[in-house]
Amino acid sequence: MNVNVGDVVPSFVRQTEFANWNRYAAVNDEFVPIHMDDEAGAAAGNGGAFGMGNLQWAYLHNMLRDWMGPNGTILTMEVQFRSINHKNQIVSAKGVVTAVDGDVVTLEVWTEQQEGTKLAPGTATVRIPA
Amino acid sequence: MSNISEAMKAAVGTVTGRTVSYPVSESDIRKWALAVYYPGQPPAEFIDAAAAAKTIHGGIVAPEDFNPFAWITAGHEKFIKNAGKLENNNPDNPEIALGIDGPGLKFQMNGGMVCEYGVRIKPGDVITSESSVGEYSEREGRLGLMLFSRGISTWTNQNGELVKRTTGTLIRY
Question: Which positions fall inside the FAS1-like dehydratase domain (chain B) (predicted)?
Fold first, then answer.
């Protein structure tokens, strides 16, 4: 796999709503009212239920995996959770290659909602076999 | 002026707890992958043993973000015997859990996390998570003096190999 600085990773895109969040809650035992119930989310000052930061984290990994294939390796990931993932947003996990050192590739990664507001920006390093 | 007390500095490096998972099953991994890829189909290496056998892993592995401690664990030990009672959304909770005085700041937010990955989790693995107190630091920000405190979670498998080390940062001001 030939990788160069500036390469754009294909986005991993999901419309986020209870169908996604409930499934994640089910496997991660994350039945937190702010993620399950609009009233609880509104009471917390967020307008309604909102998505888990951990699911944004998962989407970023999915994006890298889909790009690298099964033999690629995620070495590190660093993310800040900046904005709430509101219900029905179209969330895209994205990445751009910022450095290549042998088989180790550094990327700027982030999730954003449909208007381009970044939800969870960060960086990642991966190893991609030649 | 600093919000980092001598007691807080002394707490850095303290191991606060250890949790052990039950053996990870292929079914655990499949369900996790189905959930995080919903409504799409997960990659074959997470659900199809024959396809997974052809990868560098030689069989099914868990997604890096997989949590083997969800729902129930095989054991959990807390090492801080003089911990106080945690209160919902109390910014001093990290220090209360250590049995020391917190800085008494009013506001807090998630400062994000950094994860370093080691070997992959495979079916049959038993994962141990050890929690410890990371470094404190502070700097002047637009909201005043900001305190950064870190919690470290280190996962190893039954062979003692590093699975991942996660450092979470809490920002208080």
Answer: 10-164
Q: What is the pLDDT of residues A5-16, one digit of tens each?
A: 999 999 999 999
B35 touches chain A (CB under 8 A): yes
ipTM of the complex: 0.96
Q: What is the pTM of this model?
A: 0.94
Pick the CATH number of B6-23+77-172 from 2.60.40, 1.25.40, 3.10.129, 3.30.1300: 3.10.129
User: Which site among A11, A15, A16, A27 would you substitute to test the B interface, given the most B Cβ atoms closer than 10 Å to its Cβ?
Assistant: A27
Ordered by where they begin, the domains of chain A are 8-127 (3.10.129.10)
- For B112-129, the pLDDT digits (tens) are 999 999 999 999 999 999
Residue type, position B105, single letter: L
CB distance from B31 to chain A under 8 Å? yes
Say yes or no: B67 contacts chain A, CB-CB below 8 A.
Answer: yes
Q: Which residues of A touch B110 (CB under 8 A)?
A: 53, 80-81
